[in-house]
Q: What sequence folds into this?
């Protein structure tokens, strides 16, 4: 129902299309057997989310209106009247869903499910070879998510307990990097934040130890998957460091982002090691800027 609402409320649709959909919905509503169970009733209007490559069902819990993306037998490259293929529409729906801001649910099982389902959907998207048309969709959605309001998980302002975008941003970064490096870095740097770990300065005299002890236990919500999330944040940072080798400006920007957003000393230490390895990979002279990044991160750990 939510997916139907998303389709019918599309402001770019023509009146005759909406009339056709209304007729189709009334027809389906009048039959006893649901079209999903009996294909004889539902051939007129394909489900756009079936266009991704075939494989296991991926129930993308809590990802906006894309509650269920099932991969079945729709011809992915069949073109619609407007020149858009089902594959293009399916990819765009998936990107919209992955980028939506959503609050981390309560409970270990629900939080693990959020991580697992996001990774499953991204894994399906990675099977698709990006052509020029799909790259345009990626660029359009990345720009939209960066500029959108509270709907977007990559917007300028997000809720403190929003599900982090590290995994999704790493996928966007690697996909966009060969085509639009500036947009790729802008997206990844925006996603580096982990607001749930940001310490808010409580009121009162912080010089007294008992006062500090009284506020710390209540500062963070119960995120059971936090260690996994921090690992994904570290992976995103490492991916950017690797890509930025030889670019002084970008390396300095990534370093600033790491110093500001990563709170785990073990992950900062890992990134210091990564930077050193990347700097000394080739037989040629080492990358001096990356060595400086490694030193800065090492000093931060100390």
A:
């Amino acid at each position: 129902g939510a997916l139907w609402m998303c389709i019918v409320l599309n402001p770019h649709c023509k009146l005759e299309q909406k009339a056709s959909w209304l007729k189709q919905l009334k027809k389906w509503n009048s039959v006893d057997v649901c079209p999903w169970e009996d294909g004889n009733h539902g051939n007129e209007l394909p489900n756009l989310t079936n266009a991704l490559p075939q494989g296991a069902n991926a129930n993308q819990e809590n990802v906006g209106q894309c509650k269920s993306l099932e991969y079945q037998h729709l011809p992915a490259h069949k073109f619609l009247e407007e020149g858009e293929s089902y594959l293009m529409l399916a990819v765009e729906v998936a990107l919209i869903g992955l980028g939506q801001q959503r609050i981390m649910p309560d409970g270990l099982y629900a939080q693990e499910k959020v991580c697992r389902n996001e990774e499953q959907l991204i894994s399906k998207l990675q099977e698709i070879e990006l052509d020029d048309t799909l790259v345009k969709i990626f660029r359009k959605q990345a720009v939209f998510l960066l500029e959108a309001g509270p709907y977007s998980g990559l917007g300028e302002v997000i809720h403190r307990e929003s599900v982090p975008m590290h995994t999704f941003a790493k996928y966007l970064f690697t996909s966009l990097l060969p085509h639009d490096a500036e947009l790729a870095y802008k997206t990844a740097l925006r996603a580096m934040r982990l607001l749930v770990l940001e310490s808010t300065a409580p009121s009162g005299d912080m010089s007294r130890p008992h006062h500090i002890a009284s506020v710390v236990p209540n500062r963070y919500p119960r995120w059971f998957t936090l260690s996994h999330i921090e690992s994904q944040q570290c992976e995103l940072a490492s991916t950017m460091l690797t890509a930025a080798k030889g670019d002084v400006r970008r390396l300095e920007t990534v370093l600033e982002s790491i110093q500001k957003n990563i709170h785990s000393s073990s992950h900062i230490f890992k990134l210091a090691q990564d930077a050193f390895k990347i700097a000394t990979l080739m037989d040629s002279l080492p990358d001096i800027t990356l060595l400086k990044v490694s030193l800065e991160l090492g000093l931060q750990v100390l």
